Amino acid sequence: MFPSESNSLSASTRDLRRGLERSLGLRFERAILHGALQAGASEDFPRLDEARRGALRALESGAWRTRNEAVKLLGLSLHPDGRELLHGLLADRTPAPALHRLLGGDYFHCGFERRNALASLALLGEWDAGTTELAVLCLSDPYYEVRSACCRWIGTALAGRCRLNGGTEALRGSGELVDAVCRLLDDRRLEVRCAAWRAAGALAPAERVLEASEDRLADPRVRVREAVLDAYGHLLDRFAQEAELHARVESCLDRMLLTSVAMRPSYPVRRRYWAVRSRLKEGTCSTC
Amino acid sequence: MFYLLARALSGQNGGIGALRVLEYVSVRSIGAAVTTLLLVVLASPPVIRRLHLSGSSDRQRAFDAHLGKSKTGTPTMGGLIILASLLASMLLWSDLTSPFVWVLAASLLVFGCLGAADDVAKLRGGRADAGLGRPAKIAVQGGFGLALGLFLYLPQTTPFPGGLVDTIGIPFLKPAAFGGADVHLGWLYVPFVAFVVVAISNAVNLIDGLDGLAAGTTIPTVLVYGVFAYVLSNARLSQYLLYSFLPGVEELVVFGAALIGALVGFLWYNSYPAEVFMGDTGSLSLGGMLAAMVVLTKQELLFVMAGGLFIFVNVTHLIGDRIGIHMLGRRIFYRTPIHHSFEHMGVSEPKIVLRLSIVALVLAAISLATIKLR
User: Fold this and answer.
1) Does A221 touch chain B (CB under 8 A)?
2) pLDDT digits (tens, 9 = 90+) for B50-102
């Protein structure tokens, strides 16, 4: 494929993706947290067939940007062959060209493609034994965003935003998956560590999470401590009736370092502004 | 204006001798700094209001606007206030017959117009990425750099003493006149100046991503070059510290002081949480003016140390954005420019700005130590 042809394909695929995003009212960046789309959700998009055909064509491109758009389209368009294609892409370990490997690249399907493939799988929403195997593979991916995206996807699935074959216990019962997530609690990448803690809180046995968290109560990275607290929150949701666990969590909280370099701005004038705007939009003001 | 007036009035028989103080670099520098500081502090509120009413507001992507946490809508192009105050200060306190002042004024105007055009394009396009293209910006920056290089290199126009025209200062090394060595670039000096101008102006432009960061980190660097300009322009001091004497560069001291005054005044409003952003109008022109100071003091290589933070931000951006995102299709750093990586890691914005300003201050202190350590 000539570069100009590839560029135009990339642009047209991007337009289709943006159109689908508008139609669904969903930005692809939020796909993993959103989880499964309702069946037929993309049917309202008038160019759906074109989008599905375009995704298949773009997936064959030599340019990663074009393939990346295709990966997004597969999820947003709820492509009937999407799962199979994305599973294949994530399992493909064809190495990147030598120059790319020298500069830090790994596989032919680059990091962004693999990360977005997981997001698209989250939109497609099915989780079976094959998906668990794939998730274990992704949790050891050399690219950190794939590992962290996979952890977030597990969290989304366990929160009920995914169609789980065998229910949540099928996931929690997979020792391989639990081990893979727990290995990431000490990952060298902060983003992965945080995502792993949240996933572990929802997935792993309470004893294992609490034991591992002992070393993280005074972690120098505030993001890790935040994630540990989220993990505790998940444990309390899962084991609401277990007094012993509550006591252990309380004991951990007593020893947690609370100093922080993190602080999020909150502008009262803007909050009020958006509150008034949303009232106007919803028509809840007396003059509307 | 004050300088020329003082020279005219104090030089004549029966003239006003006391006015001679207005010829002193120290007095003019303090005057220039106070002028810009007051002008920026006093003029900012009405200008910010005017910028808002004219629709000159920042349009960054904001997924969480409804939470009241986004900065979208903050008036931008506040750099105009800095530029106007600097021009006023130059008119009042600089020696308007000095070619060094012309160069500084030209850099201010060229980069100010370039930045303003970029900001206007973004505002019209309604998106943060709708500004002037990279080639157009590089063409203007490079064109100015080449023109400056030629101006400084050609014997008919150069303000530098003969023999020093194509030399560059090397930190920790004395010039040949004092038993050290000189590096003569010959005609390569012209493209070298262009490179320095493009690199520095883009570097400062890139660091302008958090409230008060560009101003807070530029002040120490300007201070370093102001001190160097003072040393180099003083015959006795330069002789004592073994530097080649560069007559006329004392105008850079006055300008540097004015710039610091303007930046401190701007920080009054731009510090976290910002009431106004300088925009590319401010950051590009800040970079252009700093580049002009670097070239005019002939301390280009010192910028690797004095402006080490800018270089670090640029190099990491180059690796993260050009190689990582565009070529490899993956992130190498969490985010680029690198200060956004720190945000991603959970460090709050004011803390990042303060810490990076401390780094800039330390680098400035080390750079100043090279005055004696050679």
Assistant:
1) yes
2) 998 988 887 665 444 444 456 777 899 999 999 999 999 999 999 999 999 99
Q: Which of A61, A101, A103, A116 to mutate to test the interface with B (most CBs of B within 10 A)?
A: A103
Q: What is the DSSP string of B311-322?
A: HHHHHHHIIIII
A107 phi and psi, to 5 degrees? -110, 165
Query: pTM (2 decimals)?
Result: 0.88
Work out the minimum CA distance from B354 to partner chain A, whole angstroms.
12
Distance (Å, whole) CA B190 – CA B150 = 6
Residue A63 to chain B, least CA–CA distance (Å): 10
Q: How far is CA A128 from CA A76, A123, A238, in A?
A: 20, 15, 22
Chain A nearest-CA distance from B195, in A, is 26
Distance from CA of B254 to the nearest CA of A (A): 38
Asked whether the beta carbons of residue A262 and residue B346 sit closer than 8 angstroms, the reply is: yes
- Residues sharing a CB contact under 8 Å with residue B201, sequence separation 6 or more, in sequence order: B111, B141, B284, B287, B288, B290, B291
Looking at the complex, does the CB of residue A279 fall below 8 Å from at least one CB of chain B? no
CATH no. for A25-40+48-204: 1.25.10.10
Between CA B209 and CA B216, with CA B212 as vertex, the angle to 5 degrees is 110
Among the partner-chain residues A113, A143, A262, the one whose CB lies closest to the CB of B348 is A262
Give tens-digit pLDDT for A139-192.
999 999 999 999 999 999 999 999 998 888 889 999 999 999 999 999 999 999
Decide if A45 touches B, using CB distance below 8 A.
no
**Cβ-Cβ contacts under 8 Å, B66 against chain A:** 274, 278
> In this structure, what are the phi and psi dihedrals at residue A283, rounded to the nearest 5 degrees?
70, 35
| φ/ψ (deg, to 5) at B358 | -65, -45
Domain spans of chain A, in order of start: 25-40+48-204, 214-288
Q: Are the CB atoms for B125 and B185 separated by under 8 Å?
A: no
The answer to whether B138 and B111 are in contact (CB under 8 A) is: no
